[in-house]
Amino acid sequence: MGCDEFREALSARLDGEDDPAERAVTDAHLAGCAACRQWFDAAAQVTRMVRTSVVTHEVKVSDAVLAAAPGRRRARLLGAVRVALGALGVVQFLLGRPRSAGSRRDGTCTRSAWARTTCGTSRPPGTSRSAPASPGSRSAAARARG
């Protein structure tokens, strides 16, 4: 590596982007090269001045750029769209809630195992709760299939 590559590594160090694996090699070169030491001291001074100096001039933005920027009207429109989408999400949640609880609109339960445990009280009139099947028995539908 030549001095230019070491100076790139030193510049990266000043910016906090140096590679820890190359640090020892860079330090060894810096200890033996007076030109790179002088360059590093000058670069460190410039970096320190730039980071601590106060901006004294005002940044001017052209009228064309300001005209192209989104204004308050667009911000209000985006806010209204967000509120509408949030309300739509709440409505969808509320409409989907009875389905996820295992109940139907007519008050009967679905056939899922989860619904049978949570929806056991909602049965059509005139039906009774059957006793649980024993492990060796088959349901009527299973017997009919063969």
TrEMBL record:
InterPro entries: Anti_sigma_zinc_sf, Znf_put. Residues 116-146 are annotated as: Disordered. Pfam families: zf-HC2 (PF13490). Keywords: Transcription, Transcription regulation. Residues 3-37 form the Putative zinc-finger domain. Residues 121-146 have a biased composition (Low complexity). This is Putative zinc-finger domain-containing protein.
